[in-house]
Amino acid sequence: xxxxxxxxxxxxxxxxxxxxxxxxxxxxxxxxxxxxxxxxxxxxxxxxxxxxxxxxxxxxxxxxxxxxxxxxxxxxxxxxxxxxxxxxxxxxxxxxxxxxxxxxxxxxxxxxxxxxxxxxxxxxxxxxxxxxxxxxxxxxxxxxxxxxxxxxxxxxxxxxxxxxxxxxxxxxxxxxxxxxxxxxxxxxxxxxxxxxxxxxxxxxxxxxxxxxxxxxxxxxxxxxxxxxxxxxxxxxxxxxxxxxxxxxxxxxxxxxxxxxxxxxxxxxxxxxxxxxxxxxxxxxxxxxxxxxxxxxxxxxxxxxxxxxxxxxxxxxxxxxxxxxxxxxxxxxxxxxxxxxxxxxxxxxxxxxxxxxxxxxxxxxxxxxxxxxxxxxxxxxxxxxxxxxxxxxxxxxxxxxxxxxxxxxx
Length: 409
Ligand SMILES: CC(C)(COP(=O)(O)OP(=O)(O)OC[C@H]1O[C@@H](n2cnc3c(N)ncnc32)[C@H](O)[C@@H]1OP(=O)(O)O)[C@@H](O)C(=O)NCCC(=O)NCCS
Known about the structure:
Elements: E1 2-5, H1 11-22, E2 46-49, E3 55-68, E4 72-84, H2 93-107, E5 112-115, E6 129-130, E7 133-140, E8 165-171, H3 178-187, H4 198-203, E9 216-222, E10 227-236, E11 239-247, H5 250-261, E12 268-274, H6 280-283, E13 291-297, E14 300-303, H7 306-312, E15 319-327, E16 332-341, E17 344-349, E18 356-359, H8 360-367, H9 373-378, E19 383-384, H10 389-397
Parallel strand pairs: 4-5, 11-12, 15-18
Antiparallel strand pairs: 1-2, 2-3, 3-4, 5-14, 6-14, 7-12, 7-13, 8-9, 9-10, 10-11, 15-16, 16-17, 18-19
Bound molecules: coenzyme A.
């Protein structure tokens, strides 16, 4: 078997191979993201070829930016369209492509790769760990009242009127660059969020609201009329489904949620892609009215340069930890002293006794602050060598807010 990089000329054969591997014919531009392949970056894709030259496997990557805790924005590879023909499975084709691809990512100078996994058991062996999570919040319309925020009655609360703005409903095709601009501002402040390159919006490649699927857009504008948030939604059979609610400001998010929850002629409102701990549930006057469902992993993270990755993110507590990290897939191992002072980390090789021993995939899981190291200690995946080490790691790795990603790729 041979693995080679592709060019634009390989697009058709690449897409055909992906579809045969997944067992789907090419999508039409409807719900769920037709034309996804139009944004492929063919210079970052790989084809695996059988001895007779026939393509049997695909593995691609997009060049994205990922926001780390502390609003650090770094380039990453977003691994995509991974597939092996059913006739050639369990013969090591994927393993060979993963090895080749991780080498390419390193050669490009990127210190991490991310992906969305079709099945959870696939990617742990290649050093990926689930790092962000997402859920769906369903609220029956008749129990949708929002509570008056209690902090408003507390000392030091802002004067009434703060957060004034307006919501306007537009059709998706009327929104021009508003969505792209608002999303871009949002993703730079949200740990775990990925960029959506301009060509995605331009080509309408992806899931709603990027795709050509019909959608209404509730656009929020600040008191000066500048768009600062949006919610993309559709109504079917009495259910108003919000694809995504995007804003850098919690009060704007609440205004958009209120808009959806107060919509006439619907029996329930479903907010897709909300972080599992989102404050919206707490804002409902009836806490039990919001039902959290569809809880799932979203972004998986694979670290390739551990000191580089740890030094790149922001930190919120001072402390020191010695991490002993194993990377069985790449046959690497390292022990690092992580020292955090004033929001920055220094990470250097050490021969000090470790506080924690862990697999590189588990480090990927905790890296963005979305998985508590102590949970993985309790699960038997991370080994803590002294009392208090897991609790210290929990405090150190926590981000300013839960990491979340809602970009599908
Ligand atoms: C997932 C897929 C790419 C695996 O390709 P493959 O060439 O069969 O994988 P490999 O032969 O390299 O397998 C490597 C190891 O992973 C395991 N593995 C592979 N796919 C697995 C799966 N879906 N579930 C659990 N284990 C899996 C293999 O058993 C093997 O384990 P071993 O090393 O202990 O023997 C292929 O099954 C496929 O195309 N599936 C449909 C499309 C898909 O889901 N793609 C992933 C998109 S995110």
